[in-house]
Design brief:
Elements: H1 5-20, H2 28-35, H3 39-51, E1 55-58, E2 64-67, H4 76-84, H5 110-126, H6 129-133
Antiparallel strand pairs: 1-2
Helix pairs in contact: 1-2, 1-3, 1-4, 2-3
């Protein structure tokens, strides 16, 4: 698992919206300014979060973004997977660029990696945006 700026920034965006959305839609310019994020990158992340059905956009002068669900129903795993894909990918049995398997089917480490994936996924599923807001 590797935490990227995509995941970090996406979580910061979701948290900014969660804190401020009681007053209505949160403009992307406000998120960019208050979180000190690059504008173009933030727009791309918000599009991914919208496609992941975690946020919805509201058009108009007072438009912006709102959470699509209550913060207690959005997990860290939901956010990270919306912008990055799987939080922890087990590569056992996958092929590399030369169409050759990276390891055999009897890889002794596969159980270790699968166990670690379950732990990471479980942790991220149990942490919600609401729990981070406390």
């Amino acid at each position: 698992m590797r935490m990227t700026t995509q995941g970090d920034y996406a979580l910061r965006c979701i948290l900014a919206i969660a804190y401020k959305s009681a007053k209505g839609p949160v403009a992307i310019s406000r998120i960019v300014e208050e979180e000190h994020l690059p504008s173009d990158y933030t727009e791309q992340l918000m599009m991914k979060l919208r496609h992941g059905k975690l946020v919805k956009s509201v058009r108009g002068v007072k438009g912006g973004y709102l959470l699509n669900r209550h913060p207690s129903r959005i997990t860290l795993k939901d956010v990270l997977e919306a912008v990055e894909g799987q939080a922890f990918k087990v590569i056992c049995g996958h092929k590399n660029g030369r169409k050759k398997k990276m390891c055999s089917g009897e890889c002794v480490l596969k159980g270790v990696w699968m166990g670690l994936k379950r732990k990471i996924d479980g942790y991220l599923e149990n942490k919600t945006i609401a729990s981070l807001m406390k």
